[in-house]
# Entry
Amino acid sequence: MKLIIIFLSISMVGLSLLTCRDMPMNFIEIANELGYSVREYDVVTQDGYILKLFHIPGDRSRPVLLMHGLVDSADTFILRRDTSLCIALANAGYDVWIGNNRGNKYSRRHQYLDPDSDKEFWDYSFHELGYYDLPAIIDFVLDNTGAKSLSAIGHSQGNSIFLVLGATRPEYNEKIKVLVSLSPICFLNNMKKSASRLLKLFPVIVQFFTITGQVEILGENTVFARIFRYICGTKNSYGFCAHGIFFRLAGNDPEELEADFYPTVVAYYPTGTSKKNVVHLSQVSIRRTFAEFDYGLRNFDIYNSTVSPEYDLSKVKMKVALLAGRNDYISTIKDVLLLRSKLPNVIEYTVVKHKKFNHIDGVWGRNMNVYLFPSIFDILSKHG
# Structure
């Protein structure tokens, strides 16, 4: 927590002049280096956002869509290279599609809004990601493969958006064969330690961003992200940053996010979202309900109610497999079980065998191919 405050203070005294380190390879370059061809597409949402979608071709009758979490991108699913999830799926013959939500480095575009000058570009939360981004991506994949439905794998907030989709546009439930939920984010009632304190403190932090006029958070070229990479982007910072930030928020597991790999993570993460998106997550934690964005005094005009409505999870009829970790400080066992009790079609609930499985091991874990991937492939083979 002190580190967050230090970063905010530093950014106010002019360290925006810090230069970025050399840009790392992008998704396509990593895949090509591994020997895989990748196609890329621009998907346009109903409200005009242009999303980058990557495709590693395989059996068109077995499309799988991967969706990343908060301030992340498609890169997260290939960072471990040969032992990453998208490569494992491609090797198994699946037709692999990897999405990018609006606002990250690959989807920072709009038909007529400029993210650098139009604040309206950043007027979204995870609600819009589920209501607009996912339908556009899903329809694009199904139109291109000829399949009637697809399997999906989400990580963290990459699952929240499927829940929003199923609740607000229930016709899409039939287009999802199964959703494999890695460390699913829905209820945030039982977060542990620093993760809980950070979200509850975020309304205060938001005031700083409001005063400085910032509506984009942790984008590639924001001061905060550049300072973070400058301070935490080397192996020498592992003790200070990995243990002081990542493990304190996600759960301690240094064996799975080792010092040699850690700089790779910092080079690719974080990669931007809107202030409103993080505020919405903070509201979920503080209100202890999975509800639409709370606009305060404007709620009555928008919802015809003084409070924002809860998402009706009983409408999420798609098959869902929940994979949770004992050591996950954000998506805790208690909250995943609460989600399980609210969903009508949970076909599997699994606590990952790796005892230290935390919130980030599902995408960056050193040995996730050993303790996690067999469960994913088993679910896909039975329900996908």
Notes: Residues 1-20 have pLDDT under 50 and may be disordered. Residues 2-12+25-383 form a domain with the Rossmann fold fold (CATH 3.40.50.1820). Residues 126-145 form the longest helix (20 residues). The first strand starts at residue 39 and ends at 44.
